[in-house]
Model the fold of this input.
Amino acid sequence: MSVAAARQVESTAVRFSPKWISERLGRVGLHVAVIGLTLAWVVPTLGLLISSFRPFAAIATSGWWTALAPPYQWTLDNYSQVLDPATSNLGTAIFNSFMVAIPSTVIPVTIAAFAAYAFAWMKFPARDWIFLAFVGLLAVPLQLTFIPISKFFVDHGIVPDNLSSLGLPPWLGLWLAHAGYGLPFSTYLLANFFRALPSDLFESAEIDGAGTLTVFFRIILPLSVPALASLVIFQFLWVWNDLLVALIYVGGAPEVAPLTVNLANLTNSLGQGYQLLTAAAFFSMIVPLAVFLSLQRYFVRGILAGSVKG
Amino acid sequence: MHSSSLVRALVVAVAAVLTAVACGTSSTANAGTVHVIAVWSGAEQASFMAVLKPFEDQTGIKVQYEASRDEDAILTTRVGAGNPPDLAAAPGPQLLTSFAKQGKVVALNSAIDMNAYQANYSKSWIDLGEPLKDGKLYQIYSWAAVKGLIWYNPKNFQAKGYNVPKSWDDLMALQSQIKGTGTTPWCVALESGSASGWPASDWLKEIVLSQSGPDVYDKWVAGTQKWTSPEIKQAYTTWGQILGTNDGNVYGGKQFMLATNFGDVGTPMFASPPKCYMLNQASFITSFFTKANPALQPSTDFNFFPLPDINSQYAGAHVVAGDAFSMFKDTPQARKLMQYLTTAAAQTIWVKRGGKISPNKQTSLDAYPDVLSKETAAILVNTNIGRYDATDNMPADMKAAAWKSLLDFVSNQNNLDSILANLDKIQATAYK
Amino acid sequence: MDFSVLLTDIPTLLVVVLGVPAVLAAYIVGGEFLVRRLPDANRPQVRPWIWVGPAIFLVAAILLIPAISTAVQSVQDNQGNFVGLSNYATQFSDFPNGGAWVAIRNNIIIWLIFYTLFTLAFGLVLAVLFDRVQYETVVKSLIFMPMAISSVALGVIWKFMYWYQPAGSDQTGTMNAIVTFFRHDPVAWLQDQWPNGIAVLNNLALIGAATWGITGFSMVILSAALKGIPGELLEAARVDGAGELTVFRRVIFPLMMPTIVVVGTTLVIFALKAFDVVYVMTNGNYNTDVLAFRMYNLLYLSHNPAGASAVAIILLVAVIPVLVFNLRQFRAVEARR
Done:
C-alpha cells in the first residue's frame, strides 16, 4: 500500500474535535509548505521567463516584476531573433543535439548496468578497490582529458571530417568521450541501487534454478526501472546542455554542432545580446523537460513491495 | 535470447546504411575549403560572413567558420592535439603569439603580398605582427578599435555650460566643478564575465602612455618595467585621482563599478537627471548606447573627446587594439584567404556595417557610416604615438593579473603597494 | 535543412540505440556460453570480468590514463624534466592568501559544507513533502526545471537576481529588491567579500545559485529511493501511533541512508569540482576562486600544464576521505548480508 493510501485511511477522530482540527491543520500546513517552497524556488525562473518577453532597454533599467504592471512592454522580439532561420540553423542544430545526446545516454547506461550488477552481486578480487576507483574518477576534471584524448582521436582519424568521408557518423568520438565521462556516476548509482535489493530475491531465484542471465534480465532490470529512469534523465540532460565537450571533440561547424553551440553564439564576443539568452534558455529547456515528464511514470511506489513474499 | 538474429539484423542494417551513404551525394569537386576559428558570434558573425562572401564567390573556396568564445581552451586543445584550424583570429596578439613561440604558426612572409602589406600598414602594425623579432610575420591585423575616448552627452554639457576639456588640467577642473554641484562626474563599469576589469586597464594604459611616454610603455609591455616602478605606480595614483578618495567621483561607488557590466556604463549618463557626465570607453561602446536606448543619436546625444594629454612631451598618444589573424596550416586556400583579409576591399565591408575601424591606409574615410566613427578612424590614421593595447600584448596570466589588480585597487585604493608587489611577482614568471 | 542528412543519420541513430544494447547483450550472453563451458569452480572467477570488462576498458581509456599522465606531469616542469614536488610547493606557497590557498579554502570549507548540506537537505525535505500531495508531478517538475537549464543560462538568471544598483536608485535585481523592501541598503552580492575579505557572502551567493540548479538532482534520486520503501512499513509505524516526525526519523531516514550516501558523495565531488558557476558569474574574482577554475587558468591562460596538473592532483587527493567513507559503507552492507 502506498504512503498516500496509508494516509487516507479514514481518520477515527470525531469531526471538529481537537485531533480532527490538528489533522486538518497539518494538511493545510503541508500544502502551504509545499506550495510556498515551490513558489520561492520558481521565482528566478519566473524572472527569466518574464524577461524573455521584454525588450532589452527595459531589462537593463528595471526589475522584471515591474513588467507585471502598466505600462506593458511585452515583445516577442527575443524569441523571433533566436528562432530566426536566417541567422541560426535551428533545425539542424536540434537534430544534431539529439544525435549527440541519445547515443551518449544509451551507451554508458547499458555498459554501466552490466558492470553495476557485477559490482553489486558478484565477488571477484579487488572488486571494492576497482569500484572505489570508479567513484574516485568521478572527480577527474574533464579539461585534463581533452588534450590526450583529442590527440588520440586525431592520430587515429576519429575526427568529423574523416568519419563523414568514411560514411561513419561524425559524432563517434564525442559519443565515446561522453560514455567514458558518464560511466563513473552511472555505475556508482546503479551498483548502489542493485546492492540495496534484498538478497532473498536472488535466493528464491536460485532455488527456482535461474541462471545469472535470467536473474539479470528478468528480475533485476524490471525492478531497477526507477533507478534506470533517473539515470537516463540525468545523463541525457547533462549531455544535452553540454557545450565545451562538444566543441572540443566535434567542433562548431553547423553540420555537426549541437544546439548549445548555436545558443552560445547568440551573444557577440563582447557579451552583447544577453537578452537573447533569456529566450534561448526556455527554448532549449523544452526537450529535457519533456524527457523528464515522460519518464515520470516510472517513479512509482510499489514495484518492489510484495515481490519477495511468495 | 535471439541474439543471433539480432546480430544478423545488425549487420544488414549497417550494410544498408553504408550503401546508402556510398550511393548518396559524393563530395562536389570544388576549389577546397579553409577552416577559420574566431570569437565573433551573434551580429559580429553576420558581419564576418558578409566579409567572406565576395571571397567565396570569386575563388570558389568554401570557408568553414566556427565561432568559439572559449578560444583559449579550444585553440590550445586543438593545437596540442595536432588538429588546428587553417586560420584563427583573436582579439589580441597574446594567444597567437604563444603559439608562434611554440613553432605552431606558419610565417606569412611568402604567403601574402608583403610589398602591398608594408605599403598599406604603418610600421607599428607590422612590428606588432612580428612578435619573435626575427623578421618573420606571424600575425596580420584586419580590424582595429581606438581606446581612450571620453564619451559625454553634449546636451547635458550645454545645459550646465560645461566645456570640452582640452588639457589635463581642464579635465581636473571640470571634474571638480561637476563634483561641486553634487553629482558624480564619472561613470565606470568594470564587470565583464571572464574579462572583468578590462575597462579599467584601458584607463591605465592611456595614462601610462600619455604620462610616461612610449619607451616606458614598451618596456612595461615587454616585462622589463616593474609594476612597482615610480612611473607605473604614478599611473595608478593618477587614476585614483579620477576615481576620487573612496571612489567618490564615480556614480555608485565601488559596488556599482565592480558589479555592473561594462555595456551598461552609459545608462546613468543618459538618465534624466544625469547621474554622471563622462565615461571612458572604446569606439565600439556606441552600439551599446543605442541598443539600450534606440532614441539616442550620435553627435547630438553622445559625442567624444580624446583623453587629454597628461604630459605635453607625449602629445597625441593613443592606445589602439585590433583583431589579429594567424595561419596554422600552409595551404593554397589558406594563403588566398589571408591575403584577402589584408586588403582594404575586404576590411571595408565590415567598416560599412559599423563597429570596426580598418588599419589599412587604403580604406577610404567615406566608408564609415557616421561622423563619430569617421573621427575615430581619423585618430587612428593620424596618431603619431600609437601603441597597441598593452595588456592584450602581455602574456595571458599577466593580463589577467593586471585586470584583477585594478578590481582590487577599486575595492581599496590604500592597498596599492601590496597590489603592485604581487604584480611584480607574476611578472617574474609570466614572461618565460 | 539538408534532408539527405535524415536519410543517413536517422538510420545511424537507430543502429546505435538498438545496436549498442544488442551488441552488449550479445557479448554478455556469448560470454555466458563460454563461461558455462568452464568447470563449475572457475565460473564465478571468470564471469565478473566479462561483465565489468567494457566499463573498465572505457573508463581506463578515457579517465584513468589521462589521470595517470596528469599525475606524472605534476612532477615535471613544462619541458618534461623531473622536478619533484616543486609544482606542489608553488601551489601551497604564501599561506593564507597566495598560491592555491584561496581556492582550497573555498572548495574544502565553504563549497563542500554548504553546497552539499543545502542540496541534500532541500532534496530530502522536498522529496518527503511532495510524496504526500496529489499534485506531486507538477511541483516536482517545477523544482526540477533548473536542472534543464544550461550553466550559461543559469549564470544569466542569477546575475539578474544579484543585480546591483546604488542605494536610492530603483533596483533591477530580485535579491536587492527584496533587501531594499526591508529598508536595508542594496548589497553587491557577488562582489562583497563580507566578512572582512574572508568572502563568505559572495561565495554563498554563488553556492546559492549552484544549489538551486542541482537540487532537482538530489530530489529525484531521493524521491526514487523514498518510493522504494514498502508502504507496509510506514503504515505499521503510523498504526503504532508514531507521529510524522518520528516516522521520518526512525523509518524513512535509516532506510534511505544508502541513497543519501550516494547522493552526498556525488555532491561532495561536485562541490570540489565546481567550475561553471564561478567561471560565468565572477571569474574567480573577489576571493571566489575554486580549484577547477584555477586549474583551467593555469592550463589555458598561463600555458602551464604542469601547474594545472598539480592542482588537479590536489583535487583528487581531497576526494580520498570521501572514498574511504564509501568503502566503510560497502563493508558494512556486505557484513549485514
About this structure: Residues 15-29 of chain B have pLDDT under 50 and may be disordered.
